[in-house]
Design brief:
By secondary structure, this protein is an alpha+beta fold. The protein is built from seven helices and 20 strands. A hairpin with a 2-residue loop joins strand 8 and strand 9. It is globular and about 70 Å long.
Length: about 300
């Protein structure tokens, strides 16, 4: 059994709980993982990987993601969202929509971003949120992140709330974006709502409600598994013949000129990987330039599974 399961995670449900529920339904011997977690305070699309598809975790995590978030101006918290303690209050009513729009331009493209102190990043071998909740002083290091687009989707409300739609790359924290936005505006801010609406070619619309997993039969879960081929739009995809498929299965390179392009990348990954597939194999490959022709080397091979 191999495939992807799209879940719509509700607020206050942990991503690890979703993985556990799916594993319980499919059987404890079935490998179950994820393609990127969501904070318990966030909702939206969670991609569950089943069977051999768990080996595609890095590829899925690297796909661009889109979020809808609402920021609350005038209050900064210890967690950068509504679950934390208030650590700063400032007047926000002087802030206008044009002020926000001017600041947004500075976030575009590559930038250095410090993850929230309460987050899953590792510090000296431990999670930052564990250290923070034990009372230790936490200082997360800045890391490069990439914002594809940031659009303000509404006016500032009477309560000081303003909404955004954000497309970004792997490792970007929306909580950090809102925190940094508030600091640049001089009033502080935190996330009060956050929802992941898409990841690569997959959208939250039509995903299974994770809160209903315990009530669903095993057959309902397996019937909703997507084949790994559904990942093809996330990278440039090439079709291969029997000879090339056998070479990939054996870990050998294949010349690009012997492959037939199926599609260009609509949601490309930052790693520059491509998909090579046939009825026999689904392979994540990387280019190797030997100065005369381009060869593709397999990084992850998924042998076709037609049993589910």
């Amino acid at each position: 059994m191999t495939g992807l399961l799209l879940l719509s995670k509700p607020v206050d449900m942990r991503s690890t709980k979703c993985v556990e529920l799916v594993r319980n339904k499919l059987g404890r011997k079935t490998k179950v993982g994820h393609g990127g977690t969501l904070d318990s305070t966030a909702s939206g699309l969670l991609i569950i990987l089943v069977g051999a598809a768990t080996r595609l975790s890095s590829f899925v995590m690297d796909m661009p993601k889109c979020y809808e978030t609402t920021a609350s101006l005038g209050v900064e918290t210890s967690t950068d969202d509504a679950s934390g303690e208030v650590i700063r209050r400032d007047e926000w009513r002087q802030i206008k929509e044009k002020d926000i729009d001017l600041v947004l331009a500075s976030f575009m493209g590559w930038r250095m971003q410090a993850p929230p102190d309460v987050s899953a990043v590792h510090i000296d071998g431990r999670r930052a949120h564990e250290l923070a909740r034990e009372g230790h002083e936490v200082k997360t290091e800045k890391k490069p992140v990439f914002f594809c687009s940031i659009v303000r989707t509404g006016e500032i409300s009477e309560e000081g709330r303003v909404s955004f739609r954000i497309s970004c790359r792997k490792g970007t924290y929306i909580r950090s974006f809102v925190r940094d936005l508030g600091r640049m505006l001089g009033c502080g801010a935190h996330v009060c709502e956050l929802k992941r609406v898409s990841c690569g070619p997959f959208k939250v619309d039509g995903a299974i409600d994770a809160a209903s997993l315990e009530e669903r039969a095993r057959e309902e879960i397996t019937d909703n598994l997507l084949r790994v081929e559904s990942l093809s739009p996330a990278a440039a995809t090439y079709l291969c013949g029997e000879e090339e498929a056998d070479r990939l299965i054996n870990g050998l390179n294949v010349p690009l000129q012997k492959l037939k392009r199926e599609n260009f990348a609509r949601w490309s990954t930052t790693a520059g990987e491509v998909v090579v597939r046939s009825g026999k194999i689904f392979s994540i490959c990387r280019f190797r330039d030997n100065c005369r022709s381009y060869d593709l080397l397999p990084a992850v091979n998924i042998i076709s599974d037609r049993s589910n």
